[in-house]
């Protein structure tokens, strides 16, 4: 998927575990065919999982990021009142794999999809409850301090322009360009709130049509409160979105900012993963279809 992607398979992970955590060495290891783009994930027995970063990087910097993400995930778990993986151990580079890697608890549930619970009122209400819990949490005086989604929409102009330039023949580029131009100048929020930061289907676990858990909470932190509204464009059809919106109480500006963050993300998914990750490519396209069909976003 990436130019700097690292090769890691179940045999290498098995050797890493056997040598560094002998007490876990007898557990079976199997790769999971997930749509993950940052980590390769392996099941370790029945109640643990191994995550190996896919992007090459400086080991010390990767280790610092892992520790920061573990702290953020613990903060999320304390807010969300939902199952979320807990860090068990951090492994060191070895067996030809050049980076630290992690062992986490395994959370049961089915990975979300763009359509699986798209019409479900209970699922929409569960997502709304999660967002409201995050918004009610204390930020500790913090505000958004990163460079990704959740800060200033116009900061993403260059990325959106690149995505549109690479999407000719794949997407209705001019309609999407017009939508971005309308949304990028929306008024900014008067405060930042706690957010998960990446509520895409691959990070949501469902059981039936109820929210059963949340993955990859390492990006939890203060940001534009509209950032987590990307979930509704990724996973809900119009009637369920209306249920969510009523419960959360989003006004027109906040609702449109959430659409802007979803647009920025989906544009990248559609072209970047066109040939390498069918699930993420399909997610980008289905989200863009929802955005273009929403009457409240029409120009």
Structure description:
- The protein is of the alpha+beta class.
- It has two domains: 10-105, Phosphorylase Kinase, domain 1, CATH 3.30.200.20; 110-297, Aminoglycoside phosphotransferase (APH), C-terminal lobe (Aminoglycoside 3'-phosphotransferase, Chain: A, domain 2, Alpha-Beta Complex), CATH 3.90.1200.
- It is built from nine helices and ten strands.
- It has helices spanning 10-20, 59-80, 121-136, 157-165, 173-183, 230-235, 238-248, 252-272, 278-293; strands at residues 29-31, 39-44, 48-53, 87-91, 101-105, 110-111, 193-195, 204-207, 210-214, 221-223.
- The strands form three sheets. The chain has a five-stranded antiparallel β-sheet, with helices on both faces. Strands 6-8-9 form a three-stranded antiparallel β-sheet, covered by helices on one side. A two-stranded antiparallel ribbon has the order 7-10.
- The radius of gyration is 19 Å and the shape is globular.
Task: Put the structure in a nutshell.
With about 300 residues, the chain is an alpha+beta fold.
CATH homologous superfamily of the largest domain - what is it?
Aminoglycoside phosphotransferase (APH), C-terminal lobe
Overall average residue pLDDT: 95
Structural class: alpha+beta
Q: What characteristic shape results from the CA principal axes?
A: globular
Strand content: 5-15%
| Low-confidence region ranges | none
How many helices in DSSP terms?
9
CATH architecture classification name of the largest domain: Alpha-Beta Complex
Write out the strand line-up for the largest beta sheet, numbering strands in chain order: 1-2-3-5-4
- The total count of strands amounts to 10
Radius of gyration: 19 Å
**What's the main sheet like?**
5 strands, antiparallel
CATH topology of the largest domain: Aminoglycoside 3'-phosphotransferase, Chain: A, domain 2
Helix % is 40-55%
């Amino acid at each position: 998927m990436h130019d700097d992607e690292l090769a890691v398979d179940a045999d290498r992970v098995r050797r890493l575990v056997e040598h560094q955590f002998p007490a876990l060495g007898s557990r079976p290891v199997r790769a999971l065919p997930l749509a993950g783009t940052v980590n390769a994930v392996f099941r370790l027995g029945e109640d643990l999982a191994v995550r190996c970063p896919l992007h090459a990087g400086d080991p010390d910097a990767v280790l610092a990021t892992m520790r920061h993400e573990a702290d953020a995930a613990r903060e999320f778990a304390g807010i969300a009142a939902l199952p979320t993986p807990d860090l068990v151990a951090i492994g060191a580079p070895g067996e030809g794999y050049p980076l630290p890697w992690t062992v986490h608890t395994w959370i049961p549930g089915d990975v979300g999809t763009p359509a699986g619970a798209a019409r479900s009122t209970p699922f929409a209400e569960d997502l709304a409850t999660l967002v409201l819990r995050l918004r009610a949490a204390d930020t500790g005086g913090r505000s958004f301090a990163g460079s990704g989604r959740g800060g200033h929409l116009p900061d993403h102009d260059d990325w959106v322009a690149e995505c549109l330039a690479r999407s000719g023949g794949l997407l209705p580029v001019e309609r999407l360009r017009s939508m971005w131009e309308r949304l990028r100048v929306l008024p900014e929020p008067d405060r930042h709130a706690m957010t998960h930061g990446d509520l895409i289907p691959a990070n949501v676990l469902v059981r039936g049509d109820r929210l059963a858990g949340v993955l990859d909470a390492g990006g939890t932190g203060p940001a534009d409160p509209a950032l987590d509204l990307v979930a509704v464009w990724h996973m809900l059809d119009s009637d369920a979105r209306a249920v969510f919106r009523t419960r959360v109480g989003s006004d027109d500006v906040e609702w449109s900012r959430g659409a802007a963050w979803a647009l920025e993300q989906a544009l990248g998914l559609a072209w970047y993963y066109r040939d390498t990750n069918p699930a993420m490519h399909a997610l980008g396209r289905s989200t863009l279809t929802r955005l273009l069909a929403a009457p409240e976003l029409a120009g």
